[in-house]
Amino acid sequence: MAQHFLLAAKSKTISEKQVARMSEEEARVTFEKLRWSDTDGEPVCATCGCTDSYIINTTSKSGKPIRRYKCKACRTQYTVTTGTLFASHKLELRDYLMAIVVFANAVKGISASQMSRALGVQYKTAFVLVHKIRASIVDNQDNIKLDGVVEMDGCYVGKTRPENKKEDRLDLRLAANQNPNKRCVLVARQRDENGNGAIKTVTGVTFSESSKVIDSFALSNITKNATIHSDGANGYDNLEAWYNSIKGDHSTCYVGDNGESSNQAESFFSRFRRLQYGQCHKLSNLYLVNYAIEIAYREDNRRVSNGAMMIDIATKSINTPTHSEWTGYWQGNKRVAERLVA
Ligand SMILES: [Zn+2]
Fold it and tell me: 149-158+174-304 maps to which CATH number?
């Protein structure tokens, strides 16, 4: 059987126009090939794993065509989205594919309001959709530790803006005057051996760069004996106990004579700030770590074609189980606590 056009080598790049011109059936077949890749898109029962099924073609109340399958073994009915992030979907499957290509093309991230304009859907719909796509990236991270040469650093969000008049300004160095919503996004990036930037990124959210947090984050995510580059902050002092710790001094230079640098960590923060200031403006602390992981994914895949990235995100989305956080979000079913570095 000929390879699906979206999966062929020639679709190294893909445009939103190409997806917009797809039929609903083509979009369904695309998702089926990505969900049931072991059977080249032939349906596999979500309940019992049987591959024998009857086809039931129906339409939704709004006239949207729906392809259902009825398992010959257990008689359960299912569709390509059953049990996934996109279960009980209201939009056409083509809209989900469109959302994914728009998301993949947005190299600095995308806000829910921009997605709502791109798809012509309500803000609330777009908000949940973008978060579901992001959640599929978060849930599909591997747990392989960083190795070799790693750069670590932190950047702060939710800082208090100084008052207009000098006499009204508070000393923001004092803990009592700091914004309680301030958080630190920590990042660790493994450098490419051949000098082509960073190849793998891990990120997490915390209150500050204390040595306790830095130690815990490093030991959970970086193999011992790796070399860690950091800036001159005190929180990184203890790393010497487990790692070859190299500290730069940004007050004198950004790249030291012996290669001390955290430029790859800065590159991550640069893209993160573009998402924060240029796209979303307000990042909820509840989901801050999800935004950070999205940016880590974009940084690590910066040389991947948008077509390949779209297929990767679509594969992750259609294989991620139904998400408790994103089912009934606007009915009050949401995350209750922040995910912070332990
Ligand atoms: Zn079955």
Answer: 3.30.420.10
